[in-house]
Structures are given as C-alpha cells and as structure tokens.
Write a structure and sequence with these properties.
This protein is of the alpha/beta class and 203 residues long. 39% of the residues lie in helices and 18% in strands. The protein contains 7 helices and 8 strands; from the N terminus they run H-H-H-E-E-H-E-H-E-E-E-H-E-H-E. The strands form 3 sheets. Strands 1-2-3 form a 3-stranded antiparallel beta sheet. Strands 4-7-8 form a 3-stranded parallel beta sheet. Strands 5-6 form a two-stranded antiparallel ribbon. Helix 1 packs parallel to helix 3. The radius of gyration is 17 Å and the shape is globular. The chain starts with a helix and ends with a strand.
C-alpha cells in the first residue's frame, strides 16, 4: 500500500496544477495520499500564469501553468520544449517587463513550466506565450500575485500586445480548465467573445 501511495503522489506531482481538480484531490485524500503531497501537487508560485497551448493542425488546445524564474546558468537548458521563435518572443517580453518594473533584479530570467514533465514531448513555437511571460515577470518583480483562474494569451511587441492565432480553441481550453476569464489581444476580442458565449469572461 505504501508503494502504491508513493506512486500516486509522484503521479500527481507530474500533472500540471490546473489539471489537479478538487475532485481528484478528494479521491487521492480518501486513498490516503499524504496532505503534503496533495499540497505540493496543487501549489504554484504567486506569479504563475495560466496560458493556452494549441496542438497544431488539430484545432484543440490545453491550458498549462508557467512562471518566470531566475536562470543562474544563463542558458535555458530547462526549456527544451521551447522553439527558437517562442524563446525569442518570451525574452523580449521579459525585457519589456523589466522596463515596466521600477527596480527589477539583475540576472537572466526565463519562462518555465510548473510541471516540465507535462511538456516533455511538446514543441512550443510562436509568440503567444510572451504575454504570459510579461505578466509573470511583472508580478514577480512588483510583488503582486496573479489571479489563479485567469488565462492569458497574446504576443508582446514593444509596448503593445498584438493578435495571435487559434483564439477559439484557446477560449475552449480556458473554459475546460475552469478559468473565470481569458485575457486576449484587443484585435482578437470579437473572435474570443463568439467562442466564449456565456461560458467565460473575455478581457
């Protein structure tokens, strides 16, 4: 029984926090999974951001948890799932967040997944994670917590957040993840509203 409980605890920690529902936690607790393991499975830093990822060519998306973290080695070896274009856009967004923050710390920062194991076979490209990176970095450096039930998508270009693709599946993924709202670029708002119906607030 102890081995089985350890396996369940380890499995929970590999699942993205957004997928660890209260019902799943209740069932795991009923099986005897320790409280500290359940807390670890659902925990995330206060500057963590929910962002949608789209499966290319499949018309579907899922929401994952990301946050900006210090990269002491100066190389993003911990993000092999990021393609070069996505990494470049994220670095630019973090630079913009540094400009907006009054006293950001020194050092190189990068966007990491709350559960890297959940993206082990992924290949993320495009710039739509850059808005999430900006929000996370700004929250980290200003000491503000990010709302835990809001999904963010958008491409940061200088001081603007510009349109991105696949808005409808991103909205559907946010609804499926139980999010209260989704933040989209202004030019994507109409498409997002059509996809959202009354299921989620579009900001």
């Amino acid at each position: 029984r102890r081995v089985a409980l350890d396996e369940v605890s380890a499995l929970l920690f590999r699942i993205d926090p957004v997928d660890v529902t209260s019902a799943l936690v209740s069932r795991a607790a009923a099986l005897g999974v320790p409280r500290d393991a359940l807390d670890a499975a659902t925990s995330r830093p206060p500057h963590a951001v929910l962002a949608p990822l789209v499966a290319v060519g499949e018309g579907r998306a899922l929401v994952r948890t990301f946050y900006v973290s210090l990269d002491p080695g100066g190389a993003s070896e911990g993000t092999p799932w990021l393609e070069a274009d996505a990494e470049t856009a994220i670095e630019a967004a973090i630079t913009e967040a540094r400009r907006l923050s009054r006293s950001p710390p020194n050092g190189r920062y990068r966007l990491v997944a709350a559960r890297p194991e959940s993206l082990r076979h992924a290949s993320v490209r495009g710039a739509s994670l850059s808005a999430a990176a900006l929000v996370s970095a700004y929250a980290l450096w200003t000491g503000r917590a990010v709302l835990s039930d809001v999904v963010v998508t958008g491409r940061v270009v200088g001081t603007r957040v510009v349109a991105v693709g696949a808005i409808a599946p991103k909205v559907r993924a946010a609804v499926a993840a139980g999010a209260h709202a989704i933040v989209v670029p202004a030019r994507d708002r109409d498409e997002a509203l059509r996809a959202a119906r009354d299921d989620i607030e579009v900001l």
